[in-house]
């Protein structure tokens, strides 16, 4: 196993988020208030000191405001020379008197500006940075950076090779817990570093032609289960997030260290490679406290977090890198088609729940073992969807990568009296009784195998056998879920290993219920075409909310073309006698269904493949 790779990123954010209101004590807003600037710089110094005394180097992301502060500039130069810290140009921390006077706006999220303003702001920052430091930065970052912005930066300032480019699952869930006032909607991206494509920053590049030229890292390393089920802002290796989630008692927070260790554990699924990052602005260590936590506890949590990283480094279990150093390292470790995998377990609530996350240039997928290995989140990266963001585009705030399946926004396994939610699972039917595997909890183990004749591998989830009880029959079902590298396919392999009646015949119905969108609210489905194809025949349904169904014995393929997200999703089986089917939804349940049904006996198996492609 390699050492855990750590990025520590600090920013001298002279006007930290939220802090002006606290520091101002109810006074009229003044982002140039001297007390605010002094406190912010003092906290930045504390953060830097804490890292250095634990033997850790940092990346200092200068902010627009800090470029006007001689002390902040001097500190960055000193720490670059003394500790090897990298001086970078961050795109957070835009709000300051100088910025507002120049750009006449209170906007501060770089991706929300018009492209014309984005270019102007980038040129302003990078040229001022060069004038101060004598070189252009090698890394940059924000909560989110859209592909068009990254492409411009890489073309104009080719020295940049690393960027903080998205914040994992910062979508509607986070929006709702910010009183519907924090318009940062960009979930659907990778949780760990990746090489973003030129077309869409969320979607990893499939080859050199798609390579944007940078390595992207996430804004914060999140808990891949708690964050998905709830508000991500409470669950990360950012110590103050753990305090905000109130995941501590008597000033201690073992969850923080368990979370760091779980990121270390991801080396098991990624050829020995594991990564973690810590990115905390000064506002999170406000002298007036944050939430119910006083400054003393905020400070202690930060110091304890850094001390843990320092201990790991001393033990030879951690390597600290600057952002640009990491970008170079990453390109030696990962190929374009190599996936990022995470078999993640609950370390907070004691539920023993497992999720498996998988991402590659074709997809991001999540398998939920508490729902029998159902596919509960699916993003079609194969489409490499061009999704322009900011003022003057169709998506001023919503930068999320669209989903085909998303159980939190589109119900998942549906328990209402009508309708369906998005999910990919299977049903077993015997003598009129039906069991959906979504109701069967299981566990998974991870393995890899080389694909014969190639340099690529299969990543395999083997589920613990599930016992299915009907009124007059009991059977044991075994499932393997196989992700074949560089294929865009997910294969489900089901085997009935034992039946209480060896002569019984059970019907299995493998299905995917899907739609498209980025929020809870439905999109117009009328552009979608569903189709069934056999050896000598085919049939289609042009979606019009009419609840129509078609089926075909011996079907070779069931498919849906979704023009608004340029995606073709298809379903096939290995049984010539299987019945393929397609279902159109209706207005109350605006989904579509693809599936295959087949008869199964004891010792028999059924393989089905779900494939994602770009629709021309």
Would you mind describing this structure in some detail?
The protein is of the alpha+beta class and 616 residues long. 22% of the residues lie in helices and 30% in strands. It contains twelve helices and 29 strands. Strands 16, 17, 18, 19, 20, 22, 23, 25, 26 and 29 form a ten-stranded antiparallel beta sheet that branches. Strand 19 and strand 20 form a beta hairpin. The longest helix is centred in the N-terminal third of the chain and has 20 residues, at 34-53. The protein is globular and about 80 Å long. The mean pLDDT is 94.
Strand segment tally: 29
**What are the low-pLDDT stretches, counting only 5+ consecutive residues below 50?**
none
Give the biggest sheet: 10 strands, antiparallel
Global morphology: globular
What's the rounded overall pLDDT mean? 94
Number of helices: 12
* Computed structural class: alpha+beta
So what's the oligomer here? single chain
Q: How far apart, in Å, are the first and last alpha carbons?
A: 42 Å
Helix fraction bin: 10-25%
* Rg over CA atoms: 26 Å
Percent of residues in beta strands?
25-35%
């Amino acid at each position: 196993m390699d050492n855990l790779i750590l990025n520590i990123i600090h920013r001298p954010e002279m006007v930290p988020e939220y802090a002006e209101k606290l520091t101002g004590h109810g006074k009229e807003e003044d982002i140039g208030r001297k007390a605010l600037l002094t406190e912010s710089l003092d906290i930045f110094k504390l953060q830097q000191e804490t890292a250095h005394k634990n033997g850790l180097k940092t990346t200092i992301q200068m902010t627009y405001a800090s470029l006007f502060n001689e002390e902040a500039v001097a500190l960055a130069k000193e720490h670059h020379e003394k500790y090897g810290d990298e001086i970078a140009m961050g795109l957070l921390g835009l709000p300051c008197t100088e910025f507002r006077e120049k750009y006449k706006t209170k906007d501060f999220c770089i991706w929300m500006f018009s492209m014309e303003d984005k270019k102007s702001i980038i040129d302003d920052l990078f040229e001022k940075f060069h004038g101060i430091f004598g070189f252009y930065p090698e890394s940059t970052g924000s909560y989110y950076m859209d592909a068009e912005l990254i492409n411009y930066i890489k073309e104009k300032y080719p020295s940049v090779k690393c960027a903080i480019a998205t914040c994992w699952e910062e979508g509607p869930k986070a929006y709702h817990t910010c009183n519907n006032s924090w318009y940062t909607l960009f979930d659907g991206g990778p949780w760990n570093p990746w090489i973003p494509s030129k077309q869409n920053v969320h979607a990893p590049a499939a080859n050199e032609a798609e390579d944007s030229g940078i390595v992207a890292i996430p804004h914060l390393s999140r808990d891949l289960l708690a964050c998905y089920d709830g508000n991500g802002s409470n669950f990360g290796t950012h110590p103050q997030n753990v305090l905000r989630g109130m995941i501590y008692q008597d000033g201690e927070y073992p969850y923080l260290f368990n979370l760091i260790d779980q990121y270390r554990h991801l080396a098991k699924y990624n050829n020995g490679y594991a990564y973690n990052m810590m990115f905390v602005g000064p506002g999170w260590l406000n002298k007036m406290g944050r939430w119910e936590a006083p400054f003393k506890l905020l400070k202690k949590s930060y110091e304890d977090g850094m001390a843990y990283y320092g201990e790991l480094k001393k033990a030879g279990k951690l390597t600290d890198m600057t952002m640009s150093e990491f970008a170079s390292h990453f390109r030696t470790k990962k190929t374009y088609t190599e996936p990022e995998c995470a078999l993640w377990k609950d370390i907070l609530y004691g539920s023993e729940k497992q999720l498996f996350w998988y991402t590659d240039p074709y997809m991001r997928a999540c398998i939920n073992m508490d729902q029998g290995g159902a596919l509960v989140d699916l993003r079609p990266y194969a489409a490499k969807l061009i999704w322009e963001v900011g003022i003057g585009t169709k998506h001023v705030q919503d930068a999320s990568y669209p989903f085909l399946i998303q159980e939190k926004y589109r119900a998942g396994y549906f328990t209402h009296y009508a309708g369906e939610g998005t999910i990919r699972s299977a049903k077993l039917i015997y003598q009129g009784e039906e069991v959906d595997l979504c109701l069967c909890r299981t566990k998974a183990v991870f393995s890899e195998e080389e694909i014969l004749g190639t340099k690529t591998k299969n990543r395999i989830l083997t589920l613990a056998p599930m016992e299915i009880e009907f009124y007059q029959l009991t059977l044991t079902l075994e499932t393997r879920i196989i992700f074949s590298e560089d294929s865009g396919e997910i294969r489900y392999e089901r085997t009935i290993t034992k039946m209480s009646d060896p002569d019984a015949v059970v019907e299995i119905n493998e299905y995917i219920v899907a739609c498209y969108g980025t929020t809870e609210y439905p999109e117009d489905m009328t552009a979608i075409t569903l189709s069934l194809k056999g050896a000598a025949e085919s049939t289609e349904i042009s979606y019009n909310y009419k609840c129509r169904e078609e089926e075909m014995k011996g079907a070779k393929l069931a498919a849906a073309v979704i023009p608004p997200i340029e995606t073709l999703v298809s379903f096939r089986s290995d049984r010539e006698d299987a019945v393929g089917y397609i279902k159109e939804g209706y207005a109350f349940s605006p989904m579509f269904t693809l599936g295959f049904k087949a008869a199964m006996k004891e010792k028999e198996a059924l393989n089905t493949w779900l494939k994602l492609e770009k629709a021309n």
